[in-house]
Amino acid sequence: MSDFILFLRRFVSSPGQVGSVIPSSRYLSKLMMKQVNWNKTNRIAELGPGTGVFTKAILSHKHQEAQFLVVERDAQFRQMLQERFPELTIRYEAQKLPQYLDELCIDKLDAIISGLPFAVFPDLLRSQILDSVIESLHENGTFITFQYSLQMKSELESRFSEVDIHFTPFNIPPAFVYVCRKG
């Protein structure tokens, strides 16, 4: 219940940064994790983890030696994540992802999982973040994100060689999962 209350508070106080009033469902998390080839994923980042629903799933799926970077802008969410997952490397701005990879001596990423609410971001910020995603991924790397509409479809299709869309009604609100491949 505390995650729900924190999400609701953060949504009310920062609706331009938090895209939902509640954390993602386990059904959405399962669908997102299913899109990652965990046997071939050695470097992964998560953008906008919120309270850590996907973070927990990533930690349970990834190889022990896989490098994992988390990027969360909201200070309260960052504090909660650090308390729950003290081993995490957490940074602050998604558009600085390539810079963080350089600082941490992490090569290009195999996968990026995102919970960022792109629909509420200004166009420039959305574009900067997607540019950083493209720059940070290996060729054939995968970017997995979810949204509550198909608003991002054409923008993602213009940036990635392949975009597959999945849907789960078992989330509040129901969600579209975009699986984007750089190639």
Question: Which short descriptors sum up this protein?
Answer:
183 residues; alpha/beta; Rossmann fold
Short description:
The protein has 183 residues and is of the alpha/beta class. It has helices spanning 2-13, 26-34, 53-61, 75-84, 97-103, 123-136, 153-159; strands spanning 43-47, 67-71, 89-91, 109-114, 137-147, 162-168, 175-181.
Number of strands: 7
From the N-terminal CA to the C-terminal CA, the straight-line distance is 41 Å
CATH fold assignment of one domain: Rossmann fold
Order of helices and strands: HHEHEHEHEHEHEE
Count of helix runs: 7
- CATH architecture label name of one domain: 3-Layer(aba) Sandwich
CATH homolog superfamily of one domain: Vaccinia Virus protein VP39
The top level CATH class name of one domain: Alpha Beta
Structural class: alpha/beta
**Average pLDDT reading:** 90
Helix content: 25-40%
Query: Strand-residue fraction?
Result: 15-25%
Radius of gyration: 15 Å
Largest sheet: 7 strands, mixed
Low-confidence stretches: none
Strand order of the largest sheet: 3-2-1-4-5-7-6
